[in-house]
């Protein structure tokens, strides 16, 4: 343990106790409910309380006074929230709007969106994150290195907040070899203990560490936490090979917080049913899908009293299952997370493809193909953007590797580019959906 870690953990505990131990209580209950599951009575009670509260205090939801069941409330998208921002905001917080917290999403894979939230919800967002981390070995106060595109005036945090949270900003606006060498030196020099990054950034970093045979024996890294798009199995295995432990896979968004996380070595993602109610709806209607079928991930947030988020269509898709244990407690799991509809690809038969396909398809071409992005323009027409060594690349071989998954009748056009940039969010999209039939 580092002295800074112990100091910050001690300071957190003392300050929290002075305020009644509220944060520790939230964290303790959250961790227990994630592991032990929730009762059906709890879920029903929380949904009913939220619906009643919204109908009383939100001008938008006052229009749904006769609605008795959550399915009678509208499914909301980012666009709908943006169009009704003031109406959704509850009257109880309208006169202190400026003091509310703002949870922003960059819009790199959809519409830009800002969610207002009260202090209690903000505490739950933070403790929810810590809960998932601690279930995988994190210790409060550990020094975190967060990989993002840090933009002054937008998301760069102050020196005081960085010091207080023991957080080091690692900029990934450039992830060429020179920049990666600097990042590695920063990890070593600053004695960073936890790497928190989008999966695409971790894929680039792991590849660099392997390719350059970087000596990490003097590093202090004890944990790697993957956010955003699904972490490809190859990267997962490579991180375990390099560091001697597995990365932690998670799923969440900026609007609600962390929704689910891998616990231990499980392949599935355990969902936080204590804070959220999950629905899986059809891709082309608001009807529920059958258990085990692909669907849109729709989230109801129990605890944002300033800005009720009821039936929020996250834009993500996946496969979800709920099970009831021998004690009658309910557990939720995502067995597959495909990501945004705008980044979800289909083969020529109209069957969905996991993002892992596009993140793993070039495994045997390392050093030749540096980056790739597949764009689906029509049901059978695709474009492949390649950042590659043109003197060595075998274009027919690359196209064949994609056609294996897209279908033999796929029309695949190749466009060479010098760089496929990382999005403002810190993600590098490996596939993009442009076919109107699937949007």
From TrEMBL:
The EC number(s) this enzyme carries: 6.2.1.30
Top-tier EC class: ligase
Keywords assigned: Ligase
Superkingdom assignment: Bacteria
GO molecular function annotations of the record: phenylacetate-CoA ligase activity
InterPro entries on file: ANL_N_sf (IPR042099), CapK_Type1_Caps_Biosynth (IPR053158)
Keyword Ligase: yes
PANTHER family (alphabetical): CAPSULAR POLYSACCHARIDE BIOSYNTHESIS PROTEIN
Protein name in UniProt: Phenylacetate-CoA ligase
Species for this entry: Blautia caecimuris
